[in-house]
Amino acid sequence: MLLQKEGTKMMEEKEFNSMVIDKKSPVAAYKQLKDIIYRKIKDGEFRPHEMMPSEAELCKQYNISRTTVRLALRKLIDDGLLYTIKGKGTFVAEPKIDQIMIKIPDFYEDMAERGLKPDVKVLDIKIIEASQLISEKLMIPLNEKVFRIKRLFLADNKPYILEKKFIVCRDCRILSSCSGNFSYNLENNEVFDVLAGKCHICREYADVSIEATTIRPHESKYLNVPVGSVAFYVDMVAYKKDDTPCGWIASVMRGDLYRFRTRVFNYPLAK
Q: Which helix (H) or strand (E) holds 167?
């Protein structure tokens, strides 16, 4: 019996040690790392609220780049398996049930179906260097060039949504071709569609989170509601087919004009 237990332990250790990144595999390196960490969490090696190894430690252990590590951790955070505490690190989350039951409709189609006339005002567009937050959202190096587009969405001349959109410059040939002169190129239909939000640049899918918030002073003047009014903050990261982010949208939606609904099937009634 003792020999059997020792043999089982040796097999488990061998299996654990085989958890390496196969760079010749067709499976992306970040997906392999994500699966490794996922297994360790499910097997109880990483326990709830335990601090994860640092990015540098994971890079060294698996001989992969920091970008690869960040992408794997970001995916695990999005899946609710990890969470971060600013200034401290990344930790294992408590097990939870995550049910995705919502879809954000296209603004133009949604308003047109309601018999309203949709419109958008491009408030500002600039090429900026990625801040720490933008870098984390888009999984790009700090200070990489991104387009920042500020827009106001209206229906029947009433403001509904104030939005900031960040697009990685190298991912958008349409805006990159403007050479910084965006207003001059508005006659170009492709450029107009990007700025107006009618073109979903490189978006294969998106992760969306919605939180309750209140209107701040600089938002009040655009949305035409008092400071402190109830609103929704919608955070959306868009991804390409290879699962790398290409755009981040941060929107503030008027709480007096929006509500979110979903339909639940097979809901268990109290007995």
A: strand 158-168
Question: For the chain, how many helices (H) and strands (E)?
Answer: 9, 8
* CATH numbers and ranges of domains, the chain: 2-92 (1.10.10.10), 107-254 (3.40.1410.10)
Would you state the structure tokens that stand for residue 216, as one six-digit string? 């701040």
Q: How far is it, in rounded angstroms, from Cα 61 to Cα 37?
A: 13
Q: Can you list the alpha helix ranges (DSSP code H) found in the chain?
A: 2-17, 29-42, 55-62, 66-78, 107-113, 132-138, 173-176, 189-196, 217-223
pLDDT in tens, the chain (271 residues): 444 444 444 433 333 344 788 888 888 889 889 989 988 998 889 999 999 999 999 999 999 999 999 999 988 987 778 999 888 999 998 875 445 555 667 788 888 888 999 988 888 888 899 888 898 899 898 889 898 989 999 999 999 999 999 988 887 766 655 655 555 444 444 444 555 454 555 567 888 888 889 999 999 999 999 999 999 999 999 888 888 888 899 999 999 998 887 777 666 665 5
- Here the tokens at position 126 are 């600039």
The residue type of 130 is A
Residue 90's DSSP bridge partners are: 84
pTM comes to 0.63
In sequence order, what are the residues at sequence separation of 6 or more whose Cβ sits closer than 8 angstroms to the Cβ of residue 203? Answer: 238, 239, 240, 246, 247
Which residue from 157, 155, 158, 137 is spatially nearest to 146, judged by alpha carbons? 137
| CA of residue 148 relative to chain centroid, distance | 16
Tokens in use for 271? 């007995």
DSSP-derived secondary structure for 207-234: EEEEEEEE--HHHHHHHTS-TT-EEEEE
